[in-house]
């Protein structure tokens, strides 16, 4: 892959209902190279929560925009695979700001996809009015047109996770697709029935988050999901292993085999 456009086209093609793109989220260059070298990995995704915490900031756009962009740039530079970035709410209060910031993300980092959220603050509620949220998705699509890179937009619907109504979630999802989203990332699809219902009622591809207790990966594929990511849970897995190692060696136990894991940029 020699161009950003080719990487964007590849990323879009990897979203296949029934054969979902599995994205183990990363947060810096070394996590990116480690995941990228894993057999079968086809693309990478950053996780805003993980990126922010790794740099000492809270999630919810606590990290300054320039640092967020630098984190994505370092991830993209470390690997040859397509990278999609969790860009929270676009780090802007209005659509002009979203458009400008997404253009910066594309041109300054080399990212070929984004997540963009529809909740107003750090929590999943309240959400922007539907027409405002759709306009923000449209602004991201306009930024892609401005740069000439066919950005893959994974538009997140926070309604269900924030305690809202099913009808609102579906209306939002379809509005975001009309505004230029490629995939709809629905939080709160906690059962097989809800996943199936979302796939039936939303007029586009569906992305979900995986974690312990969620619908199993094989079943998500059977139901027709197009993408599964893990957000901050991937960093949680790494930190849990780090803590287990610390506990073992602090107690004078045997050296864990994982201390011998070979890594490099």
Automatic annotation (TrEMBL):
Record bears the keyword tRNA processing: no
Tagged with keyword Cell inner membrane: no
Origin: domain of life: Bacteria
A Pfam match: PEP_mutase
Keyword line: Lyase, Pyruvate
Listed InterPro entries: ICL/PEPM, Pyrv/PenolPyrv_kinase-like_dom, Pyrv_kinase-like_dom_sf
Any one GO molecular function term: lyase activity
SUPFAM superfamilies, alphabetized: Phosphoenolpyruvate/pyruvate domain
PANTHER family to which the protein is assigned, alphabetical: CARBOXYPHOSPHONOENOLPYRUVATE PHOSPHONOMUTASE-LIKE PROTEIN (AFU_ORTHOLOGUE AFUA_5G07230), PHOSPHOENOLPYRUVATE CARBOXYLASE
Name assigned to this protein: Isocitrate lyase/phosphoenolpyruvate mutase family protein
UniProt source species: Labedella phragmitis
